Amino acid sequence: MAKAAQEFAQILEDLVFRPPTVTFVSSSTGEVENDLARIKEILKGQMTAAVQWVKAVETVAALRVDEAWKIGPGQVLTRLGRRITARICFRALEEVAGNV
Question: Buried (b) or exposed (e) across 28-61, using 16+ Cβ within 10 A?
Fold first, then answer.
């Protein structure tokens, strides 16, 4: 993953970042991030950084989010989210799309 992370970091260097229009919670820090330079640095390291899933879910719950959707295969993140908090209704897209 280190090589892919380096290549991704190079791509990010050339991108112009604009302020987020939605709240950005990093899965690497588990916190709300607003600073563009910080977001770029977090994204550069995301492929090799530890995931702070519990902290990220707790942060999202504190923001009073009541529904979260997981897109992609598997149920691990949906199940983990449900164990972390009952405040958020975690749903997988497959649940409503008939396992498309």
Answer: bbbeebeeeeebeebbbebbeeeebeebbbbbbb
DSSP letters, 21-90, are SS--B-TTTSSB---HHHHHHHHHHTTTSPP-HHHHHHHHHHTT--EEEE-SS-SHHHHHHHHH-SSSEE
Query: pLDDT for 60-90, tens place per residue?
Result: 999 999 999 888 888 888 899 999 999 999 9
Q: CA 61 to CA 59: how far, in whole Å?
A: 5
- Other Cβ atoms closer than 10 A to 88: 18
DSSP lists the bridge partners of residue 91 as 69
- Whether the model clears a pTM of 0.90, i.e. scores above it, the answer is no
